Amino acid sequence: MFGPDRICGVLAAETAEEMARQLRWALRSTRTVELRLDWLRDDRERLLFIGWLAVHRPRATLIATCRRRIAGGRFPDGVAKQVVFLLLAMFSGCSWCDLEMEATAAFRATKLKTHLDGSRLLVSFHDFQRTPRHLGATARRLERCGGHAIKIATQCDSLAESLRVLALARGKRRVVAVPMGEVGLPARVLALRAGSALAYGAVAAATAPGQLSLDEMKNLYRADRLDRRTRVYGVIGDPVVHSLSPLMHNVGFQECRMNAVYLPFRVRDLGDFLGAIRPLGIAGFSVTLPHKEKVLRHLDDCDPLAQAIGAVNTVVVRGGGKLYGYNTDYVGMLRALERRLRLRSSRVLLYGAGGAARAVAFALAQGGAVVCICARRFERARALARAVGGQALQRARLRREFFDAIVNATPVGMYPRAAHAPLDPAELNCRVVMDLVYRPMKTRLLRLAERRRIETVSGVEMFVAQGTAQWEIWTGVRAPVAAMRRAVLAALEAEEAAAGHS
């Protein structure tokens, strides 16, 4: 209906020149593009860009949109002027125009169709606050508007709401379903597989909550190549949007030519996620803060080591939807630290007592280290120390103690609060400092250690080691470790270079 490319690149710029530049770039990846005329800063820029279109006539399916402020856009004027710009865009080569349902009350669709010069009308509904309870009724109202296709985009604050939005497109060719918001992000990626006629990716600026970039939709998640046989994996946490796990795992799948995808799930309510496992066809998932301990009570079975640790970071979904838990943080810790330090008889301070810290404590104890634990809540440190046969320390003692290694297992220093460090320089009395935080690659804690000429170990080492172990548990195949590591390092280096130039 919209052409062979079902991932639609979204152009949004303030000037005609920048809009044209974005269009040329987008056409390298897709031949379906939405033109957000309302983002252009004034009528002069809109006319300049439409004039450019009339001259160049790109070979593509172009969808003209000029959304009014009342409908979540930036166009400051009324419906009559909005329609004028849409019609001008039609005459200049756009094959579709997107007009919100509210505007069709002023201009009947039949009247519009007579002026569209062979172009088509997409009637849309947007709710940036919530997902209405009666979505079916909304869809029927859209159908009665008489367009050639309909679009429903709503803010989804749960996966259950995302599934309701996707269900509108099942078995239909004329429905575009768009779950908005960070919680709805995985459903955006899976929308084409669910039957949506289009999915959207921003060429530059995102124009809706949870909108991914065109590059991510096409190349990272390969949203247009997913089908019912695609195995779905993901990471659950809160927050999760900045995780590099999707990059690492998807590179692994692509390297091995597997029909699988790995998605970020922002999960506030574990029950909501668990209810979506079967409908979304989830085959396994990673677990990060704050769910590593909470998820245990929802498992059908668990690896004995993970049970002893009391925290799970990897879950496999087996036949009948049974959930089986593992902990690969343990493996990642051993692989990362043993390259720098002989653990047996070493004295190691672990700062933190949460889910990640538990795995590290057990790994250190199994490796033969003398484990000392310090945490903001001393009772938790004491309980973890008791579990691994270690010693709990009050923070006031750290300036007077010496350790072979110090390991930070708290999220302090993680992007975007990278200016913070969990420990002071005077507390870093050791030979090696390791930080489980991997974003940024060199945290403030590691920089403080380097100033004191202490050897450092980046959290990237553990992150890649635990992630490739997860990948192998899910797939039963040896992970392409080098490719997965390269992808993570390249992303972190690019991010830090960009931050350095900002």
Q: What labels describe this entry?
A:
8-stranded parallel sheet, Rossmann fold, 3 domains, 6-stranded mixed sheet, 20 strands, 502 residues, alpha/beta, TIM Barrel, 17 helices
Structure write-up:
The protein is built from 17 helices and 20 strands. The protein has 502 residues and is an alpha/beta fold. It folds into three domains: 7-228, Aldolase class I (TIM Barrel, Alpha-Beta Barrel); 243-327 and 465-493, Leucine Dehydrogenase, chain A, domain 1 (Rossmann fold, 3-Layer(aba) Sandwich), CATH 3.40.50.10860; 338-457, NAD(P)-binding Rossmann-like Domain (Rossmann fold, 3-Layer(aba) Sandwich). Helix 1 (16-26) packs across helix 2 and helix 12 crosses helix 13 (355-366). The longest helix has 21 residues, at 481-501.
The number of distinct helices, counting runs of at least 4 residues, comes to: 17
CATH topology tier name of the largest domain? TIM Barrel
The main sheet orders its strands as: 7-6-5-4-3-2-1-8
- Please report the first level of CATH classification, the CATH class of the largest domain: Alpha Beta
Which ranges are low-confidence, i.e. pLDDT below 50, for 5 or more consecutive residues? Answer: none
The computed structural class is alpha/beta
- Which descriptor suits the 3D outline? elongated
CATH architecture of the largest domain: Alpha-Beta Barrel
Binned, the helix content reads 25-40%
The mean pLDDT is: 94
The biggest beta sheet reads: 8 strands, parallel
Write the layout of secondary structure elements.
Layout lengths: L6 E5 L4 H11 L5 E5 L6 H14 L4 E5 L13 H13 L4 E5 L8 H5 L6 E8 L7 H10 L4 E7 L3 H9 L7 E6 L4 H10 L4 E4 L11 H7 L10 E7 L7 H11 L4 E7 L3 H11 L1 E6 L13 E2 L1 H6 L4 E5 L3 E5 L2 H9 L9 E5 L3 H12 L3 E5 L3 H11 L2 E2 L10 E6 L21 E6 L8 H8 L3 E3 L1 H17 L5 H21 L1
Parallel strand pairs: 1-2, 1-8, 2-3, 3-4, 4-5, 5-6, 6-7, 9-10, 9-11, 12-14, 15-16, 15-18, 16-17, 18-19, 19-20
Antiparallel strand pairs: 11-13, 13-14
